[in-house]
Amino acid sequence: MAVQYCQKLSLVHATNLPNYFGDIAVSKIALLLSPGFADWECACIAGKGGPFYGLAVDFFATNPGKLASQGGLECHVGQGMDELQQWDSDVLVGVGGMIWEQDAAPDIRHVLANSMSNGKVVAGICGGTLAMARAGLLNDIEHTSNSAEFLKGAEGYSGQGSYRDSGRAIVCEQVITSPGTAPVSFTAKVFRLAGLQSSIVDDFRTMMAAEH
């Protein structure tokens, strides 16, 4: 049974959509990483969004400095939460990782809430949905995650009745949520709400599905 979407959000820069290598209306996508971030969950956004689709994609970290991904990739992210808020992205993406399930999970509730209140798109995949749940962003809208049980114990979360069991990312208003097993549909939703034309997003989906 197909997941039913709630009210659609007007696209960012909907009157001035970017195109391949376009030089107008470049939307800004912020990828928020944490220690042990899940490599595959943001790879397509970063690898395709900027180089191929002309989006402005940048990286930020809950603890700026040297990070290691879940797969062991070491990188340096010099921009932290202050720089994230100053950059004023159109889409804020909370990338998952096992740290979000631990007591040491970063507290980014105010950052997520500020983005929502300022009319920005907020997206979370896998553990990133836990951060959104703790911020109260999922209490009154349709959403998904790894499972209903995954979100159940999150402090500040009361959205069990709006949870939807979905193998793909879903959109409700200005919020995108996804299980960690659906990075392609998650990327497609991020691209679409960032303002990419639907034909470009459809081409992306077709390309990624070709090997299956």
Summarize the structure.
By secondary structure, this protein is of the alpha/beta class. 30% of the residues lie in helices and 17% in strands.
Q: What structural keywords apply?
A:
single chain, 212 residues, alpha/beta, 6-stranded mixed sheet, two-stranded antiparallel ribbon
Structural class: alpha/beta
Question: Which of globular, elongated, flat, extended, rod-shaped describes the shape?
Answer: globular
Uncertain spans, ≥5 residues at pLDDT below 50?
1-5, 7-24
Structure summary, number of beta strands: 8
Helix content: 25-40%
Radius of gyration: 16 Å
User: Would you list the SSEs in sequence order as H and E?
Assistant: EHEEEHEHEHHEEHH
How would you describe what is shown here?
The protein is of the alpha/beta class and 212 residues long. It has seven helices and eight strands, in the order βαβββαβαβααββαα. The chain has a six-stranded mixed β-sheet with strand order 2-1-5-6-8-7, with helices on both faces. A two-stranded antiparallel sheet has the order 3-4. Strand 5 (91-94), helix 3 and strand 6 form a beta-alpha-beta unit. The longest helix is centred in the last third of the chain and has 12 residues, at 198-209.
